[in-house]
């Protein structure tokens, strides 16, 4: 596991975008050999998406031969609802780049059979050859996607009933009315993300400092699902200084000395 510690959220966004640029460029995808990218939503990756759009406009990267799989989606929200993750991805990223719409996969929270939809999603990932790079963010409680505390660390894509803390945290996106927050979501499992060849987790802000400390300094624990990535052979945590506030000084020093920015 690597831990990259940067000054602020802008630096994290830039580093992450350059890392994606590097990986896609090195892979040199073609129509017969596509690069497969796992993507998150939320506030944390927005800066990364903006930088990738900039790289695309500058002619430094193309997504023509990139296939994407998103982490999660609310159940019951129309695709064009401003808080659906389908809407988020198309407005914040996909419509600004040259990705083929058929290659941008987002779970369908309105599918008539949610179990079948989750099975279909896992099958699509397998048929694509697996994910080359899965990018994720975490919540203050260490959850990744909607794999909340107590989730199985070998879980697959499935429907989840959201915890009250998640509903409370997300009500700000629904006019501060908790009754409007969907009670269920579809999410990739921890095991789904663990299957990726490489994983990059973005962590910013002091409110996520405890989760980072649990993930880095303590053992694997299903109450902190992000800790599972200690066991991934190619896991990378990219964080800002604020997110390191709960880490021991010697831990911060160790990773700062060991991991110089490579890009």
From TrEMBL:
Keywords: Carbohydrate metabolism, Cytoplasm, Hydrolase. Residues 8-231 form the Glucosamine/galactosamine-6-phosphate isomerase domain. InterPro entries: Glc/Gal-6P_isomerase, Glucosamine6P_isomerase, Glucosamine6P_isomerase_CS, NagB/RpiA_transferase-like. One of its GO terms (molecular function) is glucosamine-6-phosphate deaminase activity. Its main location: cytoplasm. Coiled coil: none annotated. Pathway: Nucleotide-sugar biosynthesis; UDP-N-acetyl-alpha-D-glucosamine biosynthesis; alpha-D-glucosamine 6-phosphate from D-fructose 6-phosphate: step 1/1. Catalyzes the reversible conversion of alpha-D-glucosamine 6-phosphate (GlcN-6P) into beta-D-fructose 6-phosphate (Fru-6P) and ammonium ion, a regulatory reaction step in de novo uridine diphosphate-N-acetyl-alpha-D-glucosamine (UDP-GlcNAc) biosynthesis via hexosamine pathway. This is Glucosamine-6-phosphate isomerase.
